[in-house]
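Hi Y.,

Following your request, here is the sequence exactly as I used it, all 278 residues.
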Amino acid sequence: MKKLLSAGIVVLLISLVFVVAAPREGTLLLEGSTTVGPISDAFAEAFQKMYPKVSITVNKTGSGNGAAALVDGRCDIAMMSRFMKDKEYKTAVTGAKPFLPVAHAIAMDGVCVIVYPSNPVKALTREQVRGIYTGKIKNWKDLGGPSQAIVPISRDTSSGTYETFEGLVMNGEKMAANVEYVNSNPQAHSRVKSTTGAIGYVGLGFLDSSVKALEIDKIMPTRSSIAKGVYPISRPLFLFTNGYPELGTLVHEFCTFYLTEEGQEIIEAKGFVPVTAY
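Below is the corresponding structure, written out as tokens. Let me know if you'd prefer a different format.
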């Protein structure tokens, strides 16, 4: 009996090892935020090293498009730099194939207001930033800078970064006709670094020495101020799924990868702030 029991345990252990070691196969499609995109790209690269037979596609088209793709069943995971809107939830739960979207907060970010590096202005209030984007403030001399026209750059309206900026800065006021819209964080960054009078806003991961981040309401966007939520334009970053993903699936592993040490290292390397620290 003991020999039979021992043999059974050995067979069970071998089976478990085989299950754990078995290579994953299949595809995974992500759609949405250009802010979350670099994190997902890096997660995808790590996964494809672990699982060579897995194919992962990351389409960076904006948070609104990610939500729509998830609701329509055109992606497995929606990348979003804002929470889902009520109308997006309603469409999901009342659609032809109703489901409850589930949010996975994978990192913290700050919407950083940036200017050309040589601009002497170092700090603004949200009221002053709002004044720029509504057209009430048109020249840098009114803010302690040079006599130069302000060139306001904004993300497009389908962007989660835009909607965060609109909610936390614009306070319901409309942007002026002279505001220039761009489709992504890299485009906003590029436009500001090449235009001496420009002002724009990007995620924390897109800050570098070619642009200058401003204090907002006397607080600089830093890893610490964003992690604590004291920087006034802080926000979480999300992956949304069709219900809570089945345990053990590729979707579940991808959406919880931020909890691993490697996932946190990737988030930090991309310039964002992990929501946990081990």
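The first strand starts at residue 26 and ends at 32.

Thanks again,
Q.
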